[in-house]
Write a structure and sequence with these properties.
Distance between the termini: 17 Å
Number of helices: 2
Strand content: 25-35%
Largest sheet: 3 strands, antiparallel
Radius of gyration: 14 Å
Strand order of the largest sheet: 1-2-3
Shape: globular
Low-confidence stretches: 67-76
Helix content: 25-40%
Number of strands: 3
Length: 81
């Protein structure tokens, strides 16, 4: 695995603004047919977190993709199931 993938890079200010605007547009239904807004509630705080994701289909499996590397995608890259 590439060592650069395991290091978290904080998004720049421009990326944060773009993600917020894009997330808002996806949330109101404007976006590509494969783009969804993933919302999860914080386990301890109860705060609602949301991020736009692209749901791609490969060999009959739905694979989530986005700016952040999802655990499921990382597992599939390594060949774990």
């Amino acid at each position: 695995m590439n060592s650069n993938w395991s290091v978290f890079r904080e998004p720049s200010r421009a990326e944060k603004v773009f993600n917020r605007i894009f997330g808002f547009l996806v949330g109101i239904g404007l976006g590509f047919s494969y783009t969804y807004l993933l919302e999860v509630r914080g386990r301890k705080s109860g705060k609602l977190y949301s991020t736009p994701i692209n749901l791609l289909e490969r060999q009959g499996q739905a694979i989530p993709g986005g700016a952040a590397r999802a655990h499921a995608v990382g597992s599939q890259r390594r060949g774990c199931r």
